[in-house]
Amino acid sequence: MKINIKVSSFLIALTLFISSFILPNSTYALSGEISLEDNVSQDVPSKWAVDEIIDAEIYGVINQELSKDYKKHITAEDLLTLDTLLYNSLDTDSSNKDKIDNTKISLNEYVTKEDVMAVFYNTLKAIGNVKIDETDPVKYMISKNILKGSGNDLKLKSRCTKEQAIIISKRIYELVAKELGNTSKGLMWKVSGGKNDVYILGSIHIAKKDLYPLDSKITDIFKDSTHLSVEVNILDLENIQNEILDKGFYKEGSLKDNISEETHELLLKKLEEYGIDYSIFEKAKPWYTALSLATLDYQTSEYEKAMGIDQYFLTKGVFNKEILELEGAKFQFDLFDNFSPETQEENLEGTLLSLGKTNNDITIQGEMMQTMWNYWKNSDINGFEEIINIATKEDTEYNEKLWHERNINMTKKIDGYLNSEDEGTYFVVFGAGHLFGKTGVLKGLEERGYKLEHIK
């Protein structure tokens, strides 16, 4: 049981709230520079479309080939590609594809908005996982708020741009997820009692595709917020990379010189199993080696990966919200670098042990991540509290620094947002591990007299 606690404590920490080392994935929508003041390039979306294009990428309803020429009129070929991607994202039964009837639609290079509605409507009917009573594609799309507007404003006979078609596809994906109850509820609370409203969202920093879409209650609150606060602005890549180079590697000596022979042998064994060259870590410190390997199962698995929850909101909020940090990259890297050599090696050992297989023939690492994803998706408070209690069970240097002190400091920071003269609505995202426990943010805010409302 001792080993299990050691393994789970570090893994929970990494998955739930240590974000600095997880560098963001590039997004198709943001592959070029976007100026919201003068956005004229065809290769990036219009200002009004950026938010939903990011969602479309995450959901898998566009690919890299479609992620260009957003403002140009969509071709029939691209529309059918988009339709196939939507179908594949919504349905795993390939036989349903034969039921799609587009024979009455005459597609040529002149693709209208009406054509787009008809193609997607037919696909949705063929899949058959949502009830459709309306026989007219356009009326159906309007009734479900997929197509917005009325009468002549819809311009159904006008040519459809690629970004317009992508957004229609994305909204259909969200509709199906909502009607089937497949959206993620997350772990979110409204905090009131100060000058400003604050919403706190417990995050998971590594994610997979089926955590999305998020429940509209979460995304609607985010859209209406004025400030976004995260642990670390992980879009500041240069700063993070500089911190890694400065603190994550030995300037003199090597990893082998600073860990036991047993731990070193275990490291070599696991690197060989995963086909990783040891030279990558030859000069790395134990704590950074542990961080790098703590999500190895995730990186090498067949999960359909997606950006973490905090990265998701950062990618969207960078255009229209004030970005704040609860901690910052320097704080988090200093935290690990200042742990004793013994604690650093224990964490490395725990990470390596987590790559061992369970009775279900998956790694401890993979099992832990899947459990937390399920708890988060279903807003399972009791489940999260249980694993946090396991992680913080022992009174150690590690738990004191990584959990309790940070919990207290985050509570103080959120208290500051609640009473800030910079008025607005604050949307605060941090690792879900900080919400619970004897020093957790929820308990800390309640003790300060604030009212908490679970958003579910």
From TrEMBL:
Highest taxon above the source species: Bacteria
Pfam family, one: TraB_PrgY_gumN
InterPro entries per UniProt: TraB/PrgY/GumN_fam, YbaP-like
Listed CDD domains: Tiki
Protein name: GumN family protein
Species: Gottschalkia acidurici (strain ATCC 7906 / DSM 604 / BCRC 14475 / CIP 104303 / KCTC 5404 / NCIMB 10678 / 9a)
